[in-house]
Amino acid sequence: MLGPAQWEWIAIARMLSRRRPSTAGLEEALEGSLTSADQAMVNAFTSGFRVAQAKLAIEKCLPGDPNAAAAALESAQIVALAILVREDMPPAQFEALYRPFATVLPGPGFQPAAPIDRQLAALIKALPSLSGPVEAEVAAVAKALSEPPKAPASAAAGPAITAPPAGLEPATTYSAAWKLVIATVSQVGRTQAFRATQNSAEQAAPHDGLGIVGFAGVAAGAIFMRDVVPIEKVLVLYEPFAAALPYEQLQ
């Protein structure tokens, strides 16, 4: 039931999760929980017919991009395994593992997002609290989303190549999503309020040299436009803050 836009978002979220030490900790805890689970069920979600079926469905949505398809499948497998042992996990741990699917395929106990003004107020209120390892993770993901795609290795031996490599690239996706938001702001005539929202978030974000100020403005701008922009684009633009301040929990 998920389409290309949803699988693209899930793949991007998985690619970026590798920048977060907290993700490794969550998955290590999940692996520990699986040792006492029904191994036949564990095997069913890691190999066999179910995996082949999911892989085929994902590849149809992400044709010609094996890296993105693999990332999306990996994310789906982790979530399936988390569901398998959900009753043995703290709710917050499960919610963190389920996060890439939470908005596009709401799971048990997940509530609809709060109204836009409440989400923005919650984000702006929480931004000053970011510090230490949590803020460092935000900065790491933000950096990944600001890095231009790498040119093919052979480019050094030939003429300059400006086209990005084929396939789903987090930074390219982030840039395209932001361009869509900016274009939509102009179309719907919200420029002044949009800029005020961005400024509020940028002023609230830590100004300590880690480089997340502009990304806070982008995240707030995406939420401000969430009613007229596809939710997958909003989630990509919010992703630097998603582990520290989960989008679904901005109440």
How would you portray this structure in words?
By secondary structure, the protein is an all-alpha fold. Helix content is 65%, strand content 0%. The protein is built from twelve helices and no strands. The longest helix has 19 residues, at 66-84. It is globular, with a radius of gyration of 19 Å. The chain starts with a helix and ends in a 9-residue tail after the last helix.
For the record, give the distance between the C-alpha atoms at the N and C termini, rounded to a whole number.
28 Å
Classify the helix fraction into a percent range. 55-70%
Low-confidence blocks of residues: 155-165
What about the largest sheet? Answer: none
Principal-axis shape equals: globular
Mean residue pLDDT: 91
The number of helices is 12
| Cα-atom radius of gyration | 19 Å
Instruction: Report the structural category.
Output: mainly alpha
| Range of strand content | under 5%
- The tally of strands reads 0
Succession of helices and strands: HHHHHHHHHHHH
Write the layout of secondary structure elements.
Layout: H1 4-17, H2 21-34, H3 39-46, H4 49-61, H5 66-84, H6 91-102, H7 116-126, H8 132-146, H9 170-188, H10 191-204, H11 213-224, H12 231-242
Features:
251 residues, mainly alpha, 12 helices, globular
Concise overview:
This protein has 251 residues and is mainly α. It contains 12 helices and no strands.
